[in-house]
Amino acid sequence: MTIQVSSEGTDDIILAASASDTVQDFARLVLARKDFSFRKNQDQICQFVNSCLLNLSNHHSVDTSGLLPALASPSGSSLLKEILLMPMGVMNGVSQFRLSFQSVVLPLIGVLTRESVCQSTMGNESNTIYATVYAHRQRFIKEGIILCMQELLSCGSLAGSSFSIGHNRWRDGSMCVVTSLSSALLAIVRLVYQVITRIRDARVTLADTVNTLDSQAQMCAKISNSTDRDRFINGILVKEAERLQRIVSDAKDSIITFLDVSAADPSAPPATGPNIAHLRDIYDPPGDLSTKGPRHNNDLVKISEINILPTQQEITCSRPPFLPSNSIHDAPHFLAHGWKRQVDTHFRLYREDMMDPLRRSMVAFLSALQHTRFGEEHRLLKHKELRKINDGDVSLNVYGNVRVFGMTVERNTMGHIGIGFSQPPQILGAANKERRTEFWERSKNRLMHGGLVCLISRDQVVLGSSQDASTPTFQLILAVIVRRDVESLARDDKMARISIALADPLQYLNMLNSASQKSSKHWFLVESPGPYFGSYSSVLKALQRSMPSILPFGKYLAPTIEEQAQIKNTKHIVDPPIYARAPAFQYDISVLLNGQECRLDVNNAESIEQATRTLQSNSTLDDTQATALVDTLCREVALINGPPGTGKTWIGVALMQVLLANEAQSDCGPILCICYTNHALDQFLEHLLDKGIENIVRIGARSKSERLRQYNLHEQMLYHDKPFNVQNALRVAYEALEADASVIEDLERALQGDCLTWENVKGHLRLHFYDLYLQFDRSRNTTFSTVDMAGNQDEDENDKDVDDGFTKVESKRFKNLHHFDRWRFGHDIRENTRWNATVRESQGRSKKNNAHGSKWNRFAVLDSDVEKDWRLQVPVYKKIPSTDRPVHLLLGSDIWNMSMTERRRLLDQWRPHIQQILMNRLGELIKDFETLNNDKNDAFDEFRRQILRNCLVVGMTTNGAAKAQDLIQKLAPKIIICEEAGEVLESHILASLSSSTQHLILIGDHKQLRPQIETYHLSSDSPIGKRYNLDKSLFERLVTSVENPLPMSTLTTQRRMRPCISNLIRAPLYPNLIDGGDVHEYPPVTGMGDNLFFMHHHHPEDSKDMYGMESHSNSFEVDMAKALASYLIKNGYDQPGDIAILTPYLGQLSKLRDALKTSFMLIIDERDQEQLDQKELEEEANVSQDAHAQSGARNLSLENHLTLRTIDNYQGEEAKIVIISLVRNNTANDPTASGKIGFLKSPNRTNVLLSRAQHGMFIIGNAELMGQEKNGIWPNVIDELRTHDRIGEGFPLATQMIRSIA
């Protein structure tokens, strides 16, 4: 039986007892008593620890998830502390004063390192437990387990001098099982690993402990090595002890502050590519390492401290950022070679790929804004105007008249800001809501959820004024879109609405002050439509949080100088995966042999050869596929190179069959499968379903497969009950969020309006104006009511609202007010004024009655309630304050003797300070919301993790993997298979790796399309980009590395292309490519005189717009492609997959679609369709609904299918017949033409373009232009075509019966 101990936890090292209700219930009963104490009762402690061990283990199906939050609770932490502080010893049985190391402490270590604890996504609970351990590290770790372990090692046995292994079970047989010294020490190493990876200070305070553990691991390897199992565990133990050493070492500064040019390795091959001397001359490290000082406030040495969102200083900084060279061995860097440098490099380059388009867009807009007069800002809302101002160099969407609607308190959007802005010019004022809705539904790339936007305003400085030019006149506020609802966007014909989360919550006060409708500032919402921040941020955060010292496969993927030398000495041999090195492990590969028995031992060369021969002769795999499969199973980092049509997906499915057939003994599920496109992922997973593999989960909502609907993670979450700990965490998070909602609303009112309440003011007054505070606070329990001359309380229903410039309050609300409210509203002044008016009125009536001789008592109504002069017994006029004193004279005066002018002045003086206090409080609440939302998301991720943990296959796209990095890290898959690896950025692969990864399989072709990036000057095709190579995949880097090339398995038999087509790529790219399968038996293309032909012409490209922004197009080629497609369809090629029209350019795709949509059922990829929609919207075109893909189906036969695609979105696909429109033709009748063919010169893109066709391929373009020597592999292609007379000015047709379209 194979024993696996290669996970991060100890579920397979410290084995819990068999499931038992009695044992499981004991821990829950103890934890339910808040005041329970063990009182040093070791028997109870032993029962409790072993009960916890059983509850938290992964070897039963009972939901015991409630135990983890119970252990992390205050009472649970108290019990844990009680155990941790007890002395321990190596002894037989139990003692009242010392815990038995074997019977109690080892099970406790098992509890602390269960998979359900260390891999839980609910980090607060796990972190609380490890923080408790760390707080008592001296007693528990240093003076306890380390000393006990040293004693056992000295004795050479886990039994020690007086302990019997047989005693390592409780009386009823419910104790854990630990079988060896190696297992015990490995558990301790993993406990320390969890502590030092979670608590940064532990990397310093536990450094001596780590050194001791390393020594003990070496000693243990010598003592306990009698069996294969011991040697296997010892190998893992030594490796993980060394990992602890690397973590401690990395905590120290390892910065290279001086570059020694002579330090280059003299044995290294001569440098190629960028000039190393030049790179050293221009080297300017980041932050304080630079001799010029930091570039801005986000230019930092440690990537973990860099804000992923840029700052205003960073956006407007004119000094180039620090961008390290990539894949250039001797290039300068402040970090030594290794994982730390590799992660730093890809973080900075990948972030710059996000930053560059944003920076250029923002700077372009700021420049345009600076040159726009006040009152003419509406010009900036149109692309044409922006192009005029910026000479056509602009790529951004601008929205004007931004308004702030306040902070939301809804459950799922708490702390987010609601804003509105003018509808885009295309639909501004459009009365038809359906039209507005259609616009926003089609504008998928506008204001995407998770996208980065910038709010920009400027101060009203008159152009040409004498104001200092260095004075900042612009204000930038960065935010992320958190809610994009089409209904909210389209509801109003003038204004659209979204919700955003601010990068700096304290900027909200500025928005309230200056973006309100009262403000004279004009605010714009600006977005760069290029990079999608959501996918960047997830990967960047994962790279920031990664610990380079624990990443796997360092000697292959990021070797140090020492490791490079070792690999050279071993001739680049790659070790087998850790799980395959386990004693007695052998792959059973009979699943590919129709039941024929065959096993593969990766440690036995003869077994490897035998397995390869058996697969070659008895499976459906060809020879190179069989060899590649065996090689992959034997290498922990495996590369499979598959030229077009050689069956990369087929070999991937075969590998999955073998790996899953051996999952029980490898314990390596679930396997993470990553594909570049949704189409490829769906295809791959459907192949698994065809093979009977159904325990799969697909992550992502963009699947087009109905077969996979039930396997989607979202659907799975609907069918599973949430575990107790998830339910409890969600309840706590939601309750806390809702409890803060009322506080948010109060702060909103106080910040948005001018109204200050006593709750807002009292803290400030108590600290700074205590005498005024006392005056207000004396009558805090006093209530007031207005009394008129008749003794009636003021309940006048017709009393008008008070409007004193601060707020409006109904008269009924004047009752029961606090002293401060009476004072700020001036109720006392109003009452006194009313009193004086009543007195005057009474005196007037009295005089009138006296004139008529009346005996009416003029003071009767005042006898009981009215203030009188006691000497004259007449009513007294009350003083109405009317002074206008400065603030400093008001601070010591009577608050009731202040006029309303003085009160306003005092309030105005307090308001900025109080608003800042409120803003700080709001910032705290927003951070609290972020924490609570993270807790909520962690709870959902834990629910997802538990679903995924029980499946065999998890499938996602690279973008999906980027967004789900937190979940992937906690899922910690041991096997990762990446399809289309040549198209995947290295940063995406690095972000998916964890310390648990044991087997990385990359399947791809580095000679096909490279990863897509946003910034051209970072790409390998750019002259300056050759120093950065951001679009060089990890797959390509490993295959082409000069210093450290890894072995690669290559598939050589293609089964897609007719031989005359495969010849085009064979000579220049794949000299060993073999034509196999049925490609020699393909029928000729019906109606055509040749199966491969290049139609040469000199018709020029279409003119661009005046700003040069229009994508390339060629109307002649559109007409020819349409005519040829119509002809071929008439000859029977009318089904999906029969004909595909490919073009390199979006502009040509747009014209092809417009020309073909009325005649054919067009099949357009969703990525191309989104780009087409965006292009049309930017051109402010009112495109009707029939412009969408497949719109041509109306009134058409459903048989006339035609695939239309840009080449960048067609890798991995194929069609019987491919029509190619090359577009470029800029030499005829144009003496100024450059003769360039743009990115068509790229061999990678040309390779994909020419390798999609099965039966026939027909190319339209300028053969003379393409055949120029400077144009990549095109000269080879043109020569091959000319050799076989396949170039002419018209397509050769065959005379056959042509049926008409029905």
UniProtKB/TrEMBL annotation:
GO biological-process terms attached to the record: regulatory ncRNA-mediated heterochromatin formation
Molecular function, one GO term: helicase activity
Segments forming domain DNA2/NAM7 helicase helicase: 621-1013
Listed GO CC annotations: nuclear RNA-directed RNA polymerase complex
Residue ranges of domain DNA2/NAM7 helicase-like C-terminal in the record: 1030-1263
Domain of life assignment: Eukaryota
Protein name (Swiss-Prot/TrEMBL): P-loop containing nucleoside triphosphate hydrolase protein
Organism: Podila minutissima
Taxonomy of the source species: Eukaryota, Fungi, Fungi incertae sedis, Mucoromycota, Mortierellomycotina
